């Protein structure tokens, strides 16, 4: 390929208007993020009444919350393999159908066992969406705007969680949780219909030998004057370097730095405590004497902070870079979590209540920008095309595995060491996250995916290779 072929178009795209269909692809497919956010977030409001209606203990609450994560782990693994055979678009379409089935099942559940089964089905869809939607967007988006389009997925997750908190507040009361679960059918149907109108990933098409179709897709997704033939040639070159969707390639030494980054960011996205707050904030606040109404309204505030974080993160990852976004905001995330721990050592005065609420909001904002805006972006960018399906599945499995760990231990940890001790533990994990990012995570902003793969294959440190390339 001629020198600069992949880089020049990226610079051009910063000056040339991006075709509207690129944004349509990102917007429709990111509805999977809204469903992901809604179905994982709705349990926080529903749990206040589920535990009363179904007489759930702390362990029972953890099971109802966490079973969706077991399904997500399975969905992440299966979707990656299916995407290699069926294509990214078709897998996302099936994810939408499974979302609808799971939502209806949860809404109609007559008992705890049926509700658990329905949430397991929802988990399959959540895992499939979290795995495939970022990959799909990454493979259709121009490099210059890939970051903000992929972070649109995380923004939609945040919007879904905000809608879930609002639904929990508006539908508060015994039995309202059924309507909360059933509302997810609407965006699931919209996603299914929308995906039938979208193109397949051009990179998957090239990998399958369908270069003519890939060329036609790219002509609709790239500005006029883009060297489409050069982009297809670059995709073909890197696809030929690794056996297609061969999981054994994950064991090759040259791939290890990318896996360490992808899996490390995935793990810390959960270990830093975000979903302990998202799942259990109303329960924690209610049990701490805030009252159910205050707890639910605070939950809405948390949802609003997630949306603000999503918007800010979408700007930050392209404006200042993925690595700097993490290094700038994660220290504030850890500090606010430590303040939260200190606040729970105070008495139950109004000052303590305000300190808890403000620290919660600052933590959600900073962690949402610094980690959640990057977690679904970094793996599809840094993992090579030939193993992107199974490798991204592994990273997504890591997200859900550690999310499951947090979900099944959060209330038990609070019972064992107290609220303050639990939040101090999460603060320490935020510090470890900062150290990991500083040592291991490279900058991938504005880099064509093929350039990132070349840097990965080159001798030496991946982070230094990318930093040294103009």
UniProtKB/TrEMBL annotation:
Domain spans labelled Major facilitator superfamily (MFS) profile: 25-445
Q: Which Gene3D superfamilies match?
A: MFS general substrate transporter like domains
Query: Transmembrane region positions?
Result: 21-43, 63-84, 91-110, 116-137, 149-171, 177-198, 258-281, 293-315, 327-346, 352-379, 391-414, 420-439
Subcellular localization is given as: Cell membrane
Descriptive protein name: Sugar porter family MFS transporter
Recorded source organism is Streptomyces thermoviolaceus subsp. thermoviolaceus
Q: Which family does it belong to?
A: Belongs to the major facilitator superfamily. Sugar transporter (TC 2.A.1.1) family.
Key words of the record? Membrane, Transmembrane, Transmembrane helix, Transport
- InterPro entries reported in the protein's UniProt record: MFS_dom, MFS_sugar_transport-like, MFS_trans_sf, Myo-inositol_Transporter, Sugar/inositol_transpt, Sugar_transporter_CS
Membrane topology annotation: Multi-pass membrane protein
């Amino acid at each position: 390929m001629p020198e600069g072929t992949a880089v020049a178009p990226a610079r051009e795209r910063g000056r040339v208007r991006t075709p509207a269909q690129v944004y349509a692809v990102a917007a429709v497919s990111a509805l999977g993020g809204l469903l992901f956010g809604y179905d994982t977030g709705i349990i926080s409001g529903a749990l206040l009444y589920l535990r009363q209606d179904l007489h759930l203990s702390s362990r029972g609450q953890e099971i109802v919350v966490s079973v969706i994560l077991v399904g997500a782990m399975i969905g992440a693994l299966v979707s990656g393999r299916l995407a290699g055979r069926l294509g990214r678009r078709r897998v996302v379409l099936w994810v939408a159908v499974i979302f609808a089935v799971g939502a209806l099942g949860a809404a109609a559940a007559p008992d705890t066992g049926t509700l658990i089964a329905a949430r397991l089905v929802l988990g399959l869809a959540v895992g499939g969406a979290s795995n495939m939607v970022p990959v799909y967007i990454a493979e259709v988006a121009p490099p210059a705007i890939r970051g903000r389009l992929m972070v649109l997925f995380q923004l939609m997750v945040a919007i879904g969680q905000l809608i879930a908190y609002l639904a929990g507040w508006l539908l508060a009361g015994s039995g309202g949780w059924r309507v909360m679960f059933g509302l997810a059918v609407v965006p699931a149907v919209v996603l299914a219909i929308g995906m039938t109108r979208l193109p397949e990933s051009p990179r998957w098409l090239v990998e399958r030998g369908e270069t003519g179709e890939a060329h036609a897709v790219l002509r609709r997704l790239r500005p006029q004057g883009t060297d489409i033939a050069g982009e297809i040639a670059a995709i073909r070159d890197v696809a030929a370097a690794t056996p297609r969707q061969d999981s054994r390639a994950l064991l090759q030494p040259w791939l290890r730095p990318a896996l360490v980054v992808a899996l490390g960011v995935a793990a810390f996205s959960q270990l830093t405590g975000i979903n302990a707050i998202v799942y259990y904030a109303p329960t924690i606040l209610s049990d701490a004497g805030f009252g159910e109404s205050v707890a639910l309204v605070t939950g809405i505030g948390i949802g609003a902070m997630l949306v603000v974080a999503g918007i800010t993160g979408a700007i930050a990852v392209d404006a200042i870079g993925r690595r700097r976004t993490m290094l700038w905001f994660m220290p504030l995330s850890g500090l606010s979590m430590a303040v939260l721990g200190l606040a729970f050592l105070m008495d139950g005065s109004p000052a303590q209540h305000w300190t808890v609420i403000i620290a919660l909001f600052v933590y959600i904002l900073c962690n949402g920008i610094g980690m959640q805006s990057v977690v679904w972006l970094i793996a599809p960018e840094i993992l090579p095309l030939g193993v992107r399906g199974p490798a991204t599945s592994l990273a997504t499995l890591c997200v859900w595995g550690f999310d499951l760990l947090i979900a099944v231990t959060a209330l038990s940890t609070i019972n064992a060491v107290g609220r303050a001790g639990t939040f101090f533990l999460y603060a320490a994990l935020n510090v470890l996250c900062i150290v990991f990012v500083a040592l291991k995570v490279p900058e991938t902003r504005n880099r064509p995916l093929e350039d990132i793969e070349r840097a990965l294959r080159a001798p030496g440190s991946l982070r230094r290779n990318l930093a040294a390339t103009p």
